[in-house]
Design goal:
Its EC number is 5.1.3.2. The protein folds into two domains: about 200 residues, Rossmann fold; about 100 residues, UDP-galactose 4-epimerase, domain 1. The chain contains ten helices and 14 strands. Helix 1 links the parallel strand 1 and strand 2. Helix 2 packs parallel to helix 4. The N and C termini lie far apart (about 40 Å).
Length: about 325
Amino acid sequence: MTWLVTGGAGYIGAHVVRAFQDAVRDTGDATLSPVVLDDLSSGHAEFVPAGVPLVRASVVDTAAVRAALVEHAVTGVVHLAGFKYAGVSVQRPLHTYEQNVTGTAHLLAAMADAGVGQIVFSSSAAVYGTPDVDVVTETTATAPESPYGESKLIGEWLLRDQGVATGLRHTSLRYFNVVGSGSPDLHDSSPHNLFPLVLDAITAGRTPRVNGDDYPTPDGTCVRDYVHVADLAVSHVAAARALAADRPLERVYNLGSGDGLSVAQIMTTVARVTGVDFTPEVGPRRPGDPARIVASGEAAARDLDWVMRHTPEQMVASAWDAHRRARG
């Protein structure tokens, strides 16, 4: 009996896999042993720990997913595989829907065929669009502003409807900017995320770039929740354990900081932690980027062991260590 982590060779997924391993070690519960399914389109095989099975397949391949579920006696799924770039999704909507909506539908079909009845879904705060409140909660109206955000909301609907149809037990975790590293050998290699872009730039002697400084925020740059990837991973496993124990869970949870940081504040922190002084260049806004999204994490703190255990300085320092190790 195992848990399948789709996208488990990716940046977030690899941290979730290690959190599952930690849970097995701490509790002795072998039913929490992870199995990874990843097509390695953006993941890295070397991120998968020795001894953890890696199934190289896409979630859109129903037969391959079904075979993996049966072969590894999977009892639950943490679904992280997908296309995760809001800005790029505006230019590639069909690809985004194929990966995130069709992929989730195929995964759910394979789960139904294999009799797997519980899933933790990696959703996004992008489902809120630009909310008209300072801090969103799980009851804040959803109004996504990009195909990516729309695809994540549709994913939540698919789980809801499959729950009605088959009794699928599920919960969805909404979050935004995931940063840092829980281990120096796990780095964020995304070509679109803020931290790797900034760290790549200063490593190469280039000036980091800010996408827009004319947003209606205190310093003109976007404000987001920045959450440490290891903290996030712990709550994914907590959700899986709650489902496995048949404990009641909400349909969705925000994994948020409650206050948020601006891109300019992140830039200042990067300069201070790395010791590389710079003034960022200012480029145009990125399509699909709302000005501010900050979420309350109170419900997740109550039910999913959600705690912001890392300061912004620790987030940057851990990302910097992993980045430098990856660059040799």
